Amino acid sequence: MHWFMRRFRHRFIPGFKFGFMPGFSHRFAPSGKQVTLTQMQTGQRGKVIEILGGHRIINRLSALGIRPGQRITKLSAMFMRGPVTVQVGTARVAIGFGMANRIIVELD
Amino acid sequence: MKILLMGNPNVGKSVVFSRLTGVKVIASNYAGTTVGYTRGSMKLGEEEAEVIDVPGTYTLEPTSEAEEIALRMLENGDTVINVVDATNLERNLYLTLQLLERNIPVIIALNIWDDTKHRGIHIDLDKLREMLGVPIVPTVAVTGEGIKELVENIPGAVSPNQSALSRDERWTTIGTIVGQVQHITHRHHTWLEYLEDASVKPLTGSIMALAVLVGVFFSVRFIGESLINYVLDPLFNNLWAPVVLKLSYLMGGGGFFHDIIVGKITGGEVNFVEAFGLLTSGLYVPFAMVLPYIISFYLALGLLEDTGYLPRLAVLMDNIMHRLGLHGYAIIPTLLGFGCNVPAILATRILESKRERFIAATLISIAVPCAALQAMIFGLVGAQGGQYVAIVYGTLLVVWVILGFILNRVVRGFSPELLIEIPPYRLPPWQTVLQKLWMRVYGFLAEAVPIILGAILVINILYLVGVFDAIANFTAPVVTGLLGLPKESVTALVIGFVRKDIALGMLAPLALSAKQLVVGSVVLAMFFPCIATFVVFLRELGVINMLKSAGIMISVALVVGGLLNLIL
Fold first, then answer.
1. pLDDT under 50 in chain B at which residues?
2. Nearest CB to B318: which of A64, A90, A96?
3. A98 and chain B: CB distance < 8 Å anywhere?
4. Which domains does chain A possess?
5. Is residue B196 part of a domain?
6. Which of the 8 DSSP states describes residue B288?
7. One domain, residues B168 and B281
8. Nearest in space to B296 (alpha carbons), one of B398, B414, B156, B444
9. Cβ neighbours, 10 Å, residue B17
10. B118 lies in the same domain as B248
């Protein structure tokens, strides 16, 4: 199976194939109930576990209430790698695809 | 005394500002409406206090130009009114805690207080006051509720001088505070909330966006056209024309002063577009051709802004905008540009990187015609047939896409990703919609009418002196050879630097064919920004970027104009 995974991993790990999202998503291989925000289904709820990214991204996301430990609900995802919209607390936030791909959520 | 109004984006600072000072400022329902700062003054007891409306910021670590302005303002304020969205307490308190760590007295206006009730949010005010150690006044700025109490409590603002915490410590503190003072009861979705969800889902959202944009376009045209046909044209033709004719007769029907004041009158009838005198075209162009569209466009834009639809459009457009080197939020400055390019280029401050701002501002200056120019396009090109108007818009759209695509490849730097808060839908009270409309219409009248009159005066004098003939002969190879326009039309391109509406008006007396009008309109739209836009562009992006952008504008205008001339 190993060759299979290597050949087709871009199918399973979002962002793998594309150059414009360097390096973060493949560091994260989904395990159990943990998924990236882009892998989450619309309507699913979960808890933010980790944000894979630099200081700047973590700061910007946390200012909008998205930080480890927060409960979030995925409201929608725009087609063709568009932004993901989530509900966090009483607020709604839209997050670009690449950034959403770096947010690890543990599903309920 | 300097009072700063600070808070997260879209919590109503500008509305509180208007209430405190009586100074009217543009307020909308999306993050980043205020990108500069506005000053006003208010009476505080016997004293006159200066109030400053600061752009919204989530933290005191700035991520955009607008937020940097906010931070700079904080350095020299005396008191902060921290406007807090009561329906979003947790997130708003982060900035509050940061402010409390500064050595500056703070008072909190807990705004949008009315919404907490029907959202099932209960906040224990006394406990919150006790925990933060500063006065807190619940307010509803749109209705003015609580503003009096806020003013009374400003002298009571204190600085608790909290010790500085780390980011995680602040969030832990906030968790404790919110856990103790806020209590949320479950309740059912309202119909507005269902609509909120539908507008960011791919399928329903796209359908809604299309419906909204088509609806806006047709209502803008319908209202604008109706105002022209049923109100302003009859006024000018039935009431003003006889006065002009009488005046023309009294002035002897010709001569230097007659031509400047009344313009050219042939066959005993006044052609308000072509006469080109101060009392004919000078009044008709701004009042009867442009004003109706200013009114209808800003009415529609105001409704879009205040309901909170625009950030949702940004989410839908994000994909496409990424191809142009921008992200979805850039659609907001772009839409503002259809009104006037000046506030649009200012609004690019909500974009984070220099590269994005350059691309957005260049695309707006080239491919987004302002309302005044559009009104003239409808008036003059539309008279030749609707398909020609469609060609003008279609060309501009294609240029917008292709040029954006190229700039995305060529301009260095990075374009960050979309990260925006989506405000709840709100039904704006009609008074606020009309008030904002009036501010914008007044702004147009105060700025445009004197410039148009001045331009007509100068144009007439230059014509009579013969300066324009010299320019026309000099540029004839380009204008005639490349663009297929009569050489006199170069004067319109020159005047386009002053105002584009009157510039397009100058093409009217030249008896152009439909094709020439299309080429003229497109080149005029793209060639160079008007002086007001030019100055803002220069100030916001610097000389070098302005020069680069100007180079792009001139070359693109000539290439596209030449191509249109060949194809059509």
1. none
2. A96
3. yes
4. 2-107 (2.30.30.90)
5. no
6. I
7. no
8. B444
9. 29
10. no
